[in-house]
Amino acid sequence: MQLVFGTMAAQTLRAAVELKIVEVIGEEERTAEEVARDCGTQPVTTLRLLRALAGLGLLSETGTGAFTVAPAGLLLDERRSDSLASLIWTFSDPFMTRAWEHLADSVRTGQTSFDKVFGAGFFTHLGRRPDLSARFNAAMSQGSRATADALPAHYDFGRFSTVVDVGGGDGTVLAAILKAYPALHGVLYDTAEGMAQAAGTFERAAVTDRAEQVAGDFFVSVPPGGDLYLLKSVIHDWNDEQCAGILRRCAERLPAHGRVLIIEPLLPPQAGQVKGGLAYLSDLNMLVNVGGRERTPEEFENLCHLAGLSTPVITTLPQPHAFAMIEAAAKG
């Protein structure tokens, strides 16, 4: 029953983000009447929403009709550096969820459903909607923040002089790497829409002088001059042929000591070896919305070979991080 009601739980979180429930409650105990007054909502229905949020573990009802924010609920506060508010908003928005209504069709045909629902591909649709694109970029940044913080301590970026972050979005990952490695130069490569918020990211990290932004299309080319080509949460967006093409363009740019570093979740060879099933839900999300997929270690090896790269060295980041580092060199 919890699984069946999952969509409703997501929409409850979305309403809390939209109404700024957590921000209104703040660090004090607040009654439903007080929250309703500050949110401009009805007291009775506000109480019902607050109790639902308490039932989900995001608030605590400390007295009849009085609430405080539980630790998990703090992640809904947009003012916090660790907020997941934009990610919640994005993954509960119709542009992300409507294609899921046609999951069975995608399973039958092997095709994305997003294009049929919206009349254009996922990223084309985002490019036409700057408001959606900005919120999606913020969601991707929030989803990448923990990995970005962990990555510099688990991979030796100091071996390289220039890292090209291919499809790097707002630069969250690249900024964390540059901050940890002061001698490193970085190139952020994405569409203009994809990296629209990058300047602010680099400024906050105080790495603007070492972070170059280049707009382009990784299906056509990648910038020269890098000795490390980084792809975080890019490969899972595309099919094998498209991925091999992206990686091949990176391989062609590598110097002898250069590397390609892919950061993605790993599907285990057999279901049941990871808890919660989130990786498999992400895999289906790739199917219905963008036409990509999550992959097993063997499937990443096959991709690297198709792209002219060596057999990759695969290292998983420590828990609770869900990503692996997949490193490969150019063949020959």
Automatic annotation (TrEMBL):
Alphabetical UniProt keywords? Methyltransferase, S-adenosyl-L-methionine, Transferase
Which Gene3D superfamilies does the protein's record reference?
1.10.287.1350, Vaccinia Virus protein VP39, Winged helix-like DNA-binding domain superfamily/Winged helix DNA-binding domain
**Can you name this protein?**
Methyltransferase
Checking InterPro entries in the record gives: COMT-like (IPR016461), COMT_C (IPR001077), COMT_dimerisation (IPR012967), SAM-dependent_MTases_sf (IPR029063), WH-like_DNA-bd_sf (IPR036388), WH_DNA-bd_sf (IPR036390)
Which residues of this protein are catalytic?
A: 236
**What GO terms in the biological process aspect are recorded for it?**
methylation
Domain O-methyltransferase dimerisation spans what residues?
1-65
Q: Which organism is it from?
A: Nonomuraea longispora
Domain of life of the organism encoding this protein: Bacteria
Q: Which residues form the O-methyltransferase C-terminal domain?
A: 100-309
Q: Per the record's keyword annotation, is S-adenosyl-L-methionine included, yes or no?
A: yes
- A GO molecular-function annotation: O-methyltransferase activity
**Keyword Zinc in annotation:** no
